[in-house]
Amino acid sequence: MQMIGSALMTKLWFCCASRAKEERNPVLLVIDEFQNFAFLETLEVMIAEARKFGIGLVLSHQHTGQLTPGLLGEVLGNTATKIIFRVSGWYRASGIIWHENSRKHSTDLRGLHK
How many independent structural domains does the chain possess? Predict the structure, then answer.
């Protein structure tokens, strides 16, 4: 399944990136459990440059420990909207807060109700 998903993501990226600016219709790519595709070099490039090619990304995963530090940095640094549900563990919450440069405390994220 990973091979098919990888091929589709790479093909979509090259198709969208090669379109002329006036031909760019918005595209929304939803990738569930996207850490399974973290080995793709295309994914990091896509996260960093997707907006300029009219591609919106919805990336979902269970916890930040599933991502490499480089990929986590790309995701947190290049996304405008983040939806974070309850976070377990102060180290995960503090990492997200540190990336966000926010005044909120890690206890705020850990204290979210189910």
Answer: 1
